[in-house]
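Dear H.,

Thanks for agreeing to be a second pair of eyes. The structure we're designing against is below in token form, covering all 492 positions.
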């Protein structure tokens, strides 16, 4: 069985050491953190946000006076799980000096904790992570303006905070006063904050993610341990993640499927993607059976990819309930590869696809491409033959167009994606098979769950690794409803 991966490089998987921290070296970590970093770490490690303001304020004052080891004092009162929270918090604040001294690969660290992803956390409170990233995104002028707005709402305001610039400490005060709230499950009450953030420029996407905390839309929220060497233990196994109410299911009547097929590349470090034609044929047949109009584009340059996306409303119209954009290519972390070998970021693809003209159309991006160079592994005895599919050396002012949007990836960020030379990719073949088997009775989110469960059960051999596995990822989901495809046609 000849399998490949849609990757640009292959390296061995790095497992994070779960025992690299203890209290004997905690004080050494504090020596490498400045006072604002210590406060940020404390903010991310808190359990009870409603009642923590005074404690953190006192620790901050103590640190200012005698440079006390406030993190050590903090964790001594909280013996449970402090190691995992501290590691994740250190990654989120991006202190590479500490990470390096702990002997951890920053790349593996980042893959494990996804520090910049506002919709994902392992151990720290997800709403707190979102608020911290908000603090980092605000410039000094916007921070002062936000504080002025909120101080007009909260009168009288805490006198001790008048000359303190640490926004996280102000947020803890807001929580004590019940102006905003963070709950243990990662949800939050942020209405009062959001009304002021909406008046500030360039915060649309952050506001959207904070609103998800407010609305309890925890599609990608995982606050539990996940061993990187056993990716079978996936948060996607939890049925509650993609559950929807029956009355939230929309029945589609019409659709467009655009396939961008990248099989040949000018740069010789990217091999020909054998098996790609099989994926294209399966996708085309599947969506035609559901009555979709199918258009395929082959071997596009970066400019051609972006122009094709920009021209969707002009070239194909907007009279569709749903548009599927299927991209089959080599990949890199956070992007795909054009035929001339350039990286095209998924974020740019999203911005081009989510235009005003398609605001009310359901927009789904399906990507078959590697998102890094780490090999997912499971423990197996069987072997199959896998090779690499890459080098042989292995802003919008209007947020509404971004609604009704979803990205379903063949693999997790940072990991490779597997493809068979003749039978096509694991991901595309399983996804289409599940849609065809379910016909018009299966919902889209149910198909995502079943595809994920099916792909993660597959295994094979790549180079010297006998236990290759793959785990698809629902990277972005801003769907207002789940949906069912139009009536299935047995013959086309």
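And this is the sequence the design step returned. I haven't edited it by hand at all.
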């Amino acid at each position: 069985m000849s399998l490949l991966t849609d990757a640009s490089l292959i390296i061995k998987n790095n497992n994070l050491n779960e025992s690299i921290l203890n209290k004997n070296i905690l004080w050494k970590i504090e020596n490498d953190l400045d006072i604002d970093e210590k406060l940020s770490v404390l903010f991310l490690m808190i359990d009870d946000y409603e009642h923590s303001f005074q404690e953190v304020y006192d620790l901050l004052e103590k640190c200012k006076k005698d440079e006390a080891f406030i993190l050590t004092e903090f964790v001594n009162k909280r013996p449970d799980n402090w190691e995992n929270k501290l590691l994740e918090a250190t990654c989120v604040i991006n202190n590479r000096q500490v990470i390096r001294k702990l002997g951890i690969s920053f790349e593996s660290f980042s893959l494990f904790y996804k520090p910049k992803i506002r919709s994902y956390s392992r151990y720290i409170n997800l709403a707190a992570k979102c608020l911290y990233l908000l603090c980092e995104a605000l410039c000094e002028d916007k921070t002062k303006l936000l504080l002025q707005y909120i101080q007009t709402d909260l009168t009288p305001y805490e006198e001790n905070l008048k000359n303190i610039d640490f926004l996280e400490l102000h947020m803890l005060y807001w929580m004590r006063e019940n102006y905003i709230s963070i709950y243990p499950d990662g949800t939050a009450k942020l209405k009062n904050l959001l009304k002021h953030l909406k008046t500030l420029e360039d915060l649309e996407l952050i506001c959207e993610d904070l609103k998800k905390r407010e609305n309890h839309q925890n599609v990608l929220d995982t606050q539990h341990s996940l061993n990187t060497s056993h990716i079978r233990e996936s948060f996607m196994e939890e049925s509650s993640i993609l559950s929807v109410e029956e009355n939230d299911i929309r029945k589609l009547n019409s659709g467009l499927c655009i396939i961008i097929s990248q099989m040949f590349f000018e740069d010789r470090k990217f091999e020909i993607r054998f098996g790609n034609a099989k994926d294209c044929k399966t996708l085309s047949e599947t969506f035609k059976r559901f009555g979709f109009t199918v258009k395929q584009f082959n071997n596009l340059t970066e400019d051609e990819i972006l122009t094709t996306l920009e021209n969707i409303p002009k070239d194909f119209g907007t009279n569709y309930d749903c548009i599927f954009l299927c991209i089959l290519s080599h990949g890199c972390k956070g992007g795909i590869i054009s035929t001339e070998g350039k990286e095209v970021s998924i974020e740019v693809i999203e911005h081009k696809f989510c235009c005003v003209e398609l605001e009310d159309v359901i927009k789904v991006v399906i990507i078959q491409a590697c998102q890094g160079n780490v090999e997912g592994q499971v423990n197996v005895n069987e072997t199959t033959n896998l090779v690499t599919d890459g080098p042989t050396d292995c802003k919008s002012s209007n947020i509404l167009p971004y609604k009704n949007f979803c990205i379903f990836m063949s693999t997790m960020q940072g990991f490779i994606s597997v493809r068979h030379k003749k039978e096509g990719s694991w991901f595309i073949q399983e996804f289409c098979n599940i849609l065809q088997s379910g016909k018009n009775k299966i919902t889209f989110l149910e198909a995502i769950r079943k595809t994920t469960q099916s792909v993660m059960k597959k295994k094979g051999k790549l180079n010297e690794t006998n236990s290759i596995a793959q785990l698809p990822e629902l990277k972005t989901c801003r769907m207002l409803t789940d949906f069912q495809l139009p009536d299935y046609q047995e013959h086309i």
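Two observations from my side: Residues 53-66 form the longest helix (14 residues). The two ends are 31 Å apart (CA to CA).

Warmly,
E.
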